[in-house]
Amino acid sequence: MTPTPPNWTDVVTAIGSAATGLGIVALGIGAFLTRKQVQEVVKTRQTEMSVVYATRWSELVPARQFALGKDSGEILLVFQSARENKTSQYWEFLHYLDFFEDLGALCKQDSVSLDWIKQTYASPIASAWERWSEAILWLRETTHVPTAYEALEELAKKLANSGA
Question: What is the pTM of this model?
Answer without folding.
Answer: 0.74
